[in-house]
Each structure stands twice: as C-alpha cells, then as structure tokens.
Specification:
Elements lengths: L1 H12 L17 H4 L3 H17 L2 H12 L11 H9 L7 H12 L9 H10 L5 H14 L4 H16 L5 H10 L7 H12 L7
Helix pairs in contact: 1-4, 1-6, 3-4, 3-5, 4-6, 6-8, 8-10, 9-10
C-alpha cells in the first residue's frame, strides 16, 4: 500500500494520470448531478477537508481529483473559510508531497481563496521553496488565482520577477514562471511591468 500511495501521489503532483487501481480511487462522478443542493455541497466539502487534513497522501490524491471535478458547484460552499482553514493546516506538514498536494487542491478551489489573504501570503512564500515539486504546485495555484484576483497578482509579481531573473533558477522553472505572466494584465501599469520583466530575460538560458 505504501508504494501505491507514493506512486499515486507523485503522479497527482505532476498533474498526470494518478490512479492505476480504479477500485481504490475511481473517477469522481459529476458533482453537479449528484450534489445539487447547496447544503449537501457545503457538508461534503467540509467532510472532504477533514479527510484531507487527517488522511495520508493517497487519500489526498483522491480528494484532489474530486475537487477538480467540482468547480461548477464551488459557489455553493457557504463555509469556505472553514474549508480553506482545514486544508491550509496541511501546509505546516514536514512532508513536501503533502504540502504540494495541498497547494494543488487549494489552487483547484481558487474562487474560494480570492479573499483569503493569509493563504495568499503563504503561497507567495512557497514560490521560493527549494523543493521543485512544491514550486511546481505553487505555480499551479498561482496560475489559478492570479487571473481572478488582482490584489494577489500585484503582490506576487515581484517574487515571480525575482525567480525568473535569478541565475540559480532552472530554465524549466523559469519558463513556468514566465507562463504565469500571461495573467498579469489587470491594469496598464502591471502590463508594462510584465513587458519589462520579459525584456530582461536572458534568452541564452533557453
């Protein structure tokens, strides 16, 4: 079971197909069809958040898949702050994979975290993580949040610029950060800053 958990978690973190055993983690059903009532949706997300917080990485992989299939019903989550708080508690884990899964899960719920400034600050800090898997997950969450939250985009832009221009940043990671810049167009000032950042990128790195 340990090997299955590790393999499934690794594939989920990488954004690839994550389950080789359908009986253990079947494809999630259409949440809009099975959970039409806001009360049911809210209760389900609270329960999923508890399972995510207290479970192991294989359970988190399954919950991540479910959350990704539930975007159409996120507006029915009334207790969004409670859900986010329970999920965010896993960011204090000492396991990099657990933190990465948490970032991807919260990134899949971006509409619920547009006003959660505490999480946004944590996300900004994790863009500087020394662990590649965690940086990739933080970029995923940033890609989801930046287009719909101008204040977050403004806050995180200097960090992204620093990572892009840093000589120690691997080229693949630099390209991933550059891709995030396509969301930084909330106002003219930001658009000009993005252009300046891109103009300074040394293309010899690629």
């Amino acid at each position: 079971m340990g090997g299955t958990t590790h393999a499934a978690a690794s594939r989920a973190i990488g954004g690839q197909s994550i389950c080789y055993r359908p009986l253990l983690c079947p494809p999630p059903p259409d949440a809009a069809h099975f959970l039409p009532c806001p009360l049911q949706v809210n209760t389900a997300f609270l329960k999923l958040a508890d399972l995510f917080r207290n479970g192991h990485n294989f359970i988190r992989v399954c919950i991540l898949r479910v959350v990704r299939s539930c975007e159409s019903v996120l507006s029915s989550v009334v207790n969004a702050e409670a859900v986010i708080q329970r999920l965010s508690s896993v960011l204090e884990s000492t396991h990099v994979s657990a933190r990465a899964l948490t970032l991807r899960t919260l990134g899949s719920m971006a509409r619920l975290i547009t006003r959660n400034y505490s999480f946004q600050e944590k996300l900004k800090g994790l863009l500087d993580s020394p662990h590649r898997v965690e940086v990739d997950a933080a970029i995923y969450a940033t890609n989801s949040l930046a287009p719909i939250c101008e204040s977050f985009a403004v806050m995180v832009l200097p960090t992204i610029a620093k990572r892009i221009h840093a000589l120690e940043t691997p080229p693949a990671v630099q390209l991933a950060f550059i891709a995030v810049l396509r969301h930084m167009h909330h106002n003219n000032t930001m658009a000009h800053e993005v252009k300046a950042i891109c103009m300074k990128v040394p293309m010899t790195n690629f």
